[in-house]
Design goal:
It contains 14 helices and 12 strands. The protein has about 325 residues and is of the alpha/beta class. Strands 8-7-9-6-10 form a 5-stranded mixed beta sheet, with helices on both faces.
Amino acid sequence: MFRRTIRASAAVAVVVLLLPFAAACGSQAQAGASSDASSVTLSVGATGWKTEEAVLRFAHLDDTPYDVKWSVFQGGDQQLQAIRAGALDLASSSEIPPVFAAADGHPNFKVVAVQRGATLNQEVVAAKGSKITDIAGLRGKRVGYVQNTTAHYFLYELLKQAGLKWSDIDATPLLPGDGLAALNGGGIDAFASYGTSIITAHQQGAVTIGSGKDILSGNFLWSARDSVLGSPAQRAAAADLIARITKAYAYVNDGRRNEFAQIVAKATHQPLAQAEKDLRDAQSQRPTEARTVGDDTIASQQKVADAFAELGALKEKVDVGSFWSRKLNTELEKAL
C-alpha cells in the first residue's frame, strides 16, 4: 500500500520540509539487513505531478509488499538535492541533475537504472504575439531557463546550432512556474522548459521556437542513496518498483492509452484531446521502459557533462562513471 506525501515548492523549502524523513530513511537502511520487503519504506521522488503513482494505480500494480512515500518536485535537480540531504531514497531525473549533485566529488548516491522515455515537450517557447520565430532571434534577448536541467542543456545546444554563444543572450535561471509567469508578464522574451510547464505555456498561447526532441537522449535516470544499495531489502524493493513502472506503461500501451489520458488530462488541467495526443505521441516516439546500466548509458551522460564543462557551468570536468553502479542490474533484470 502506498503512503502518499506531496511536496511542491522551491528547492530549499522542499529539502527543509523533507528533512524529518531522513531519520526514517536511515532506520530503514538498518532494517534492510533483512531481505523482508515488508520492512521497507522507500521515499521516492517524482517531477511535475504524480505520474508514476498514477500509472501504477491505473495498471493495478500499486499493491507493493513495501511502502512507498511519493514526494513531488518541480524538477529532477530538486530531487537530487533531497537525496543529498538524506530525504529521498530514489530520485528520477534527466541525465543532468546527478552531474551537478556529484560535482563536489562526495555524492551519497549512485545512478542505478535508466528509464527510456520521450523527449517531447522539451522546448524553447516565446509568448503569444512575439516577433521571435526561431532560436537565431534570441540574440540580445532575455531568455529564462530551468538551471541544471534538460532545458539548460538543450538551450545551450540550440544556441550553438544557430551560431550563437551563451553570452549572446541574457540568460536568467527560473523555476518552471516562475518562468511561465515571467513569460506572460513580459519579464523574459522566451523560456526553455519541459513537461507540464510547456503544456501550460501552449495553453496560454506560447509558440515553439526550438525543441530539444532530437538533442536529448531519452535516458532518464534513477538515482539511489548509497544506503539503499547497502540494504538487500531496499535494493530489491527499488528494483521491483522500477520494473513495475515499466510493466504499468506496457499495460497502458496495450490499448488503454485513451483511458489513461483521462487521468492525465485531469491532473494537468488540459483538454482530453490534447492529453490523448501527447500520450500517444510520447509513447509512439519512445515507449517508457526501464533498462539496466551499461557502458552506453554512462557514455551518454558523460557527453552531457562535458557540454556543461564547456559551457562553464561546472568548475571542472566530471567523471560520471564514478557515480554509476551496476549493483541493481541483476535484481532489475529479474524483476523485468
